[in-house]
């Protein structure tokens, strides 16, 4: 199934970039690339924006379980809706990103983040390729639903 191929491309890109960061950066290292972007090494034990990062360790397996359950659901959605291109692209992007972050949680106990954007004292939390794919996938799901509602009128 082609959509599982896209999910695999996302997963491989995510894990490859994380292996590079783990190999070349120590925790807390940072390399300025532009005036608004750094490559860093950050460990996120929580969820998005470090939600529950200091919860004591139980969150590792909680978020791993949620990620696995979501992945099973997304594979089913891809099998049942392969012809809905935008929807399937969105789900495959979400799947690749979710599995990438689940792998981190299982292997390391945290998610490796390394993309760090900032401007004029404002700092966006560091993120990774998986997070980017999840964000793009979520935006495409919203767009797909808006287009579906519009067609239904």
Please tell me about this protein's structure.
The protein is α+β, with helices and mostly antiparallel strands. It is built from four helices and four strands; from the N terminus they run H-E-E-H-H-E-E-H. Helix 1 runs parallel beside helix 3 (85-108) and helix 2 packs antiparallel against helix 3. It is globular, with a radius of gyration of 17 Å.
Mean pLDDT: 88
Catalogue the unreliable spans. none
Number of helices: 4
> What is the β-strand count?
4
Category by helix and strand content? alpha+beta
Q: Whole-Å distance between the termini?
A: 32 Å
Give, in spatial order, the strands making up the sheet with the most strands: 1-2-3-4
Overall form: globular
Radius of gyration: 17 Å
Report the β-strand fraction as a percent range. 5-15%
The SSE string, one letter per element, is: HEEHHEEH
Could you estimate the helical fraction of the residues in percent?
Answer: 55-70%
Question: What does the largest sheet look like?
Answer: 4 strands, antiparallel
Features:
153 residues, alpha+beta
Task: Sum this structure up briefly.
The protein is of the alpha+beta class and about 150 residues long.
SSE map:
Elements: H1 2-24, E1 30-32, E2 37-44, H2 58-80, H3 85-108, E3 111-119, E4 122-123, H4 129-152
Antiparallel strand pairs: 1-2, 2-3, 3-4
